[in-house]
From TrEMBL:
Protein name from the UniProt record: GNAT family N-acetyltransferase
Cited CDD domains: NAT_SF (cd04301)
Keyword terms: Acyltransferase, Transferase
InterPro entries xref list: Acyl_CoA_acyltransferase (IPR016181), Bact_Acetyltransf (IPR050832), GNAT_dom (IPR000182)
Lineage: Bacteria, Pseudomonadati, Pseudomonadota, Gammaproteobacteria, Lysobacterales
Organism expressing this protein natively: Luteimonas galliterrae
Domain N-acetyltransferase, residue spans: 6-146
Keyword field contains Ligase: no
Keyword hit for Transferase: yes
Length: 146
């Protein structure tokens, strides 16, 4: 990967296979077709943004955001996914993607950005803190198949 910060742009349907490749690096494997279907739904939603760091047709990372409204906290944007290619980590790609997500939040008039980081991803916690994010809580996540 290049050491220069890649161009950040909105994702397109053609990015699905690269997003699938990157997601698999963090333990979220699925077929390119599955990612294509998910990506299409997100691209159609004004409450979501998927931004990619592109070097030609190859992606060095992506960030996915969601504008949320909750009764107790009001409106804010959540960074729901941030993945940087293993070969592009510590080159400024992650920082550029987070900055782009924050700019999207500003552009849509949302006052706060938050994110969740798996407790097992120890290397990501200092990264987020270096960007001004403050740890506000630790929680458990539960899933129930229906």
């Amino acid at each position: 990967m290049s050491s220069a910060t890649p161009a950040i742009r909105n994702a397109t349907p053609q990015d699905a296979a690269e997003i699938a490749r990157l997601s698999a690096q963090l333990g979220y494997p699925a077929s390119p077709e599955t990612f294509a279907a998910r990506l299409q739904k997100l691209l159609e939603s004004p409450r979501h943004a998927v931004l990619v760091a592109a070097e030609g047709t190859r992606l060095s990372g992506f960030v996915a955001t969601e504008q949320r409204m909750s009764l107790e906290l009001g409106e804010r944007v959540e960074i729901v996914a941030l993945v940087v290619d293993a070969g592009a980590r510590r080159t400024g790609v992650g920082k550029a993607l987070v900055a782009a997500a924050e700019q999207w939040a500003i552009d849509i008039g949302t006052p706060d950005v938050f994110l969740r980081s798996n407790i097992l991803r120890q290397e990501s916690h200092p990264f987020y803190e270096s960007l001004g994010y403050t740890r506000t809580k630790t929680q458990h996540a539960y899933t129930k198949p229906l």
